[in-house]
Amino acid sequence: MPRILAALAALLALAGAALAAAATSHYVNARYGYALDIPAGFGPVREADNSDGGVSKSLDGQSELRLWGANLLLDPLSTEVKGRIDSAGQEGWQITYRKVNNHWASWSGTREGRIFYARAILLCHDDQAGFFQLEYPLDKRDEFDPVVKGLLKSFKRADCAN
User: Fold this and answer.
1) Which of 121, 117, 120, 114 is nearest to 146 (CA)?
2) Can you count the helices (H) and strands (E) in the chain?
3) pLDDT tens string 65-123
4) Among residues 20, 33, 91, 140, which is most buried (max CB within 10 A)?
């Protein structure tokens, strides 16, 4: 009987861990007014000290989702994103995709067996933008394609009534 109870307890613990990994959570940034769903298999967002966003890491430690907001002081979103793409290139990322306009942008790249996908959106005020960047192992691209699609679908600006 003790073996059966131990086996049952172990099975329940595994099931609980699997359910926790499969559950998504919703993140809302009150400072900048953007939101998105944190993918299944990722931990909670560790909020930055300045409340502009944070970081969520995959439970296996191989992938990372960064979220942040920024003020666009003098330049439009497209100029801000071009600077970020140029910086990524200078850091050794080979930029493999980019689509940029004045309301949103997406770009991605590869480096040393890693891939990143980034997205920026103009927020309620034309002088603020929300960003996310997901970085993961290149050999898990097929596994992460639906994750990226889910992030794109859920990444929104908050209610613009204010």
Assistant:
1) 117
2) 3, 10
3) 999 999 998 889 999 999 999 999 999 999 999 999 989 999 999 999 999 999 999 99
4) 33
> Is 53 in contact with 68 (CB distance < 8 Å)?
yes
What is the residue range of 153's domain?
25-157
Averaged pLDDT of the chain: 88
* Number of domains, the chain: 1
Establish if 4 belongs to a structural domain: no
Beta-bridge mates of residue 33:
none
Looking up tokens 């409340």 gives 51
Could you tell me which residues come within 8 angstroms of residue 123 by beta carbon, excluding any fewer than 6 positions away?
32, 33, 34, 69, 129, 130, 157, 158
Model confidence, pTM:
0.84
Q: How far is CA 38 from CA 58, 83, 145, 147, in A?
A: 10, 26, 15, 9
